[in-house]
Amino acid sequence: MFKLPAKRTASLALAATAATAALTLAFVTSASATGAAVAPQDGRAVAAAPSESGGPESAFSRIATFYGAYINAVYDEDGTRAKQLRAAYLSAPLQRELAKWEETNHADGVLRAQNVPLEWKVTYIDSGMGRTNATVTLTWSGSDTTRIHVQADLKTRKILSIED
């Protein structure tokens, strides 16, 4: 077996450690350069990735889920799906009320408009007396918005009312 002098062994060990550190640094730098969580060098804030969440037991989640799916169905001109969503998420009395409103106003009662919004946002207000309340903000163009008050039953999770 060939034996290196102690000084040479220490130099090789130091070189190996330095090489490992350099490769690790290069790997970490490369990985973080492609990651979205790294702040830009010019000081701008990093925007959070879009996310939506909910749960089947939450009346508020049901409001948000309904509006998202309903707007998609209307946008896609899928009248059958829009009717199915109304039947699944809206109480029977509200469905009758909306039919009357739509006949009078010649517009979609859920959206309170004749066209489809570009964006939607559902904001929780409060819950009490067996009901949950939310505001649905519909954005049409630029900063033109409509706010709709929506109320759902906490037990059935059906939407009970939609009002301007």
How would you characterize this protein structure?
Strands 1-2-3-4 form a 4-stranded antiparallel beta sheet, with helices on one face. The chain is globular. The chain is of the alpha+beta class and 164 residues long. Helix 2 packs antiparallel against helix 3. It has helices at residues 6-34, 59-75, 79-89, 92-105, and strands spanning 119-128, 131-141, 144-153, 159-163. The chain contains 4 helices and 4 strands; from the N terminus they run H-H-H-H-E-E-E-E.
**Strand order within the widest sheet?**
1-2-3-4
Compressed to H and E, one letter per element, the order equals: HHHHEEEE
Shape: globular
Strand element count: 4
Give the termini separation: 89 Å
The major beta sheet can be summarized as: 4 strands, antiparallel
Give the amount of beta strand, in percent.
Answer: 15-25%
Report mean pLDDT, rounded to a whole number: 82
Low-confidence blocks of residues: 1-37
Which structural class should the secondary elements be placed in?
A: alpha+beta
Kindly state the percentage of residues in helix: 40-55%
> How large is the radius of gyration?
28 Å
Number of helices: 4
What can be said about this structure in brief?
This protein is 43% helix and 22% strand.
Notable characteristics:
164 residues; 4 strands; four-stranded antiparallel sheet; single chain; alpha+beta
